[in-house]
Specification:
The chain is built from 21 helices and seven strands. The protein is of the alpha/beta class. The protein has a seven-stranded mixed sheet, with helices on both faces. Helix 1 runs antiparallel to helix 2 and helix 18 runs parallel beside helix 19. The protein starts with 21 loop residues before the first helix and ends in a 6-residue tail after the last helix. The N terminus is likely disordered.
Length: 592
């Protein structure tokens, strides 16, 4: 619908929000006068809280909630989440959102670090070996989080907020009130998925999502803005050679980068292998020059005097991987990439096997790809293993992967995607959390099955809005997979395979199996192969962070996509269906 008329500038408050009505202002001034005699030091915070209380009261909040807020105000108010206001700001003239009271005893709640009891709760009913629990805990925790959301738990059963969580909730309230989006449940959800530091940055930057955009809703614009801010701390999503990746990993300066680019293959490989950030780089370069070239007939010792950066780059392009270790391919819908890899390994004389997997079951594959049985036969001729119905985030509890711990020297996942949901673009926050969690849980699950020094390659478009490049690189870094290079997809030796959409479209609309000419969903020159090397430190990692999914309540309040034209019971039913699909997907069941 059309935007409401802008407020009269003469009535605007110093913080940019609309001025309260005269009656509300009179009540606010009266409340401020009564409280000033008791608590002078907290007057600013109290008046802001009372203004928020009046605003919420006008919106129709129930009496019980108002009583809680009044009780909090009577006990001394609350400090604004972003600290004390500037001296030149007038107290109480912002449109701050209400601050809900911390429940009694909340200060005793521990930080949300997992304990043994909580871990066992997530793993209840799931058979998993002790050393693999960490590999699957995040996936099971996400499933439990979604399942519990279906239950209409009374307030007494809900977990109490810790002081840090309460502070974050306050900041979220302040931010959405500043934007005038208090009733936008999805925008609130996006804010809740941010860290406290990110909320502070957004609040003080003066940023406000465009509320009049004809194509995107405020929640979509805000989610994209937040993702772009996080990407500033990561390597670029475009082509990135080994030295650029090494420079970013160790925070080197331009002079040090120039020094590395002048090195030969032998010296550069020595420096990259030995440098850990504590040595003097110049001394290490001198040491590398004094080391004699190895006489062994290995690929790593080949061309020792050739230019270092160009020679190293050839390794990732020519797919010169560990010849003995196994290689796994995940999400290969029509198995054409697995065939390409198997042929490549045989030509190089590798003895390691190829483990090819599909997310779909065999019956679904036969409906979409008439040639699938022939593809399976070819792979078996190359002594490859073919598994169907594999969820790459749950391989720790897949019996077919039992005994493969530490076996993979190379892993491939081309163009990952969690599946399209009709009516939503991939970047919409209602569905985008699935793509981010896919990468986070994938790399965490992979840790137990990788050889130290093993290579992981994930191909994706640098401008993808579903699985953003930052989801790939960020998730890898969280799980001790060092980013070593980003190779343009068309320069990769294995890029000529029969790509597919991986969904129902493959039944009637297939990309060109030879040149991918009809795959027009994205520009081929923007496709990249993100390369990582598994470098475990041996130190225990914190539990895997996961992107918070929208609650059933948030889904019911959504007005975008398929929810735009439905209301009442139809909206509730649609929300329940979508929520059920989320649970089915996280359980490892194929949908769509």
């Amino acid at each position: 619908g059309p935007e409401p008329a802008p407020p009269d500038p003469s009535l605007a408050s110093p913080l940019g929000g609309p001025e309260p009505p005269p009656a509300a202002m009179a009540e606010e001034e009266g409340g401020e006068a009564e409280m000033a005699a008791e608590v002078v030091a907290d007057a600013v915070a109290e008046v802001e809280l009372e203004a928020a209380l009046e605003e919420v009261g006008d919106a129709g909040v129930d009496e019980e909630e108002l009583q809680k807020l009044e009780a909090q105000l009577a006990e001394g108010g609350a400090t604004p989440a972003d600290g004390s206001p500037d001296e030149d700001e007038e107290a109480g003239e912002g449109d701050e959102a209400p601050v809900e009271e911390v429940e009694e005893g909340a200060e005793d709640v521990e930080e949300p670090e997992p304990d043994e009891e909580e871990l066992e709760e997530h793993l209840e009913g799931v058979e998993v070996e002790e050393h693999l629990k960490d590999a699957v805990e995040g996936s099971l925790r996400l499933k439990r989080m979604l399942s519990r959301d279906e239950e209409d738990m009374p307030d007494s059963k809900r977990s109490k907020l810790s002081p840090e969580e309460q502070m974050k909730k306050t900041k979220v309230q302040q931010l959405i009130a500043k934007w005038g989006l208090q009733h936008d449940a999805v925008t609130r959800h996006v804010c809740e998925t941010c860290t406290i530091e990110e909320l502070d940055m957004i609040y003080h930057s003066g940023y406000c999502p465009d509320k009049s955009n004809a194509w995107k809703s405020p929640c979509e614009i805000l989610a994209r803005y937040c993702a772009e801010q996080r990407e500033r701390e990561l390597p670029t999503g475009s082509a990135c050679d080994p030295i650029a990746a090494f420079k970013h990993r160790h925070k080197l300066d331009a002079a040090q980068e120039k020094l590395l680019r002048a090195l030969s293959h032998k010296d550069l490989r020595y420096v990259i292998t030995a440098f850990d950030g504590s040595q003097d780089l110049q001394e290490l370069v001198t040491e590398a020059a004094a080391v004699a070239a190895e006489e062994e007939n290995t690929t790593e010792s080949a061309l020792p005097d050739s230019p270092g950066v160009a020679t190293l780059g050839r390794f990732n392009r020519l797919e010169l991987i560990d010849p003995i270790a196994d290689a796994a391919v995940f999400g290969d819908a029509n198995l054409t990439f697995a065939i390409k890899l198997a042929k490549h390994r045989r030509a190089l004389g590798h003895v390691g096997r190829v483990v090819a997997t599909t997310f779909e079951d065999l019956a679904t594959l036969r409906e979409r790809y008439q040639e699938i049985d022939e593809s399976i036969r070819q792979l078996e001729e190359y002594y490859a293993e073919v598994y169907h119905g594999v969820d790459c985030t749950r391989i720790a509890i897949d019996e077919r992967f039992k005994g493969m711990e530490g076996a993979f020297g190379a892993v491939y996942y081309n163009f990952p995607h969690s599946g399209a949901i009709q009516g939503f673009f991939d970047g919409h926050p209602v569905v985008n959390w699935r793509h981010e969690n896919l990468m986070r849980l994938f790399f965490r699950a992979l840790r137990s099955f990788m050889k130290p020094g093993g290579i992981v390659k994930v191909a994706s478009n640098m401008g993808a809005v579903g699985v953003r490049y930052s989801y790939i690189i960020g998730s890898a870094l969280e799980n001790e997979f060092a980013h070593i290079e980003t190779v343009p997809f068309l320069e990769w030796h294995l890029h000529r395979y029969g790509r597919s959409y991986g969904d129902k479209r493959d039944i009637y609309k297939r990309p060109d199996a030879k040149n991918n000419q009809s795959y027009n969903a994205q520009a081929a020159h923007r496709d990249m192969v993100y390369c990582f090397c598994y470098a475990p430190t041996g130190a225990p990692l914190p539990r895997q962070s996961i992107k918070l999914p929208p609650s059933l309540k948030t889904l019911k309040a959504c007005t975008d996509g398929p929810f735009r034209k439905v209301a009442g019971h139809g909206r509730d039913n649609l929300a329940k269906q979508l929520h059920k699909r989320f649970i089915t997907e996280i359980s490892g069941t194929h949908v769509g």
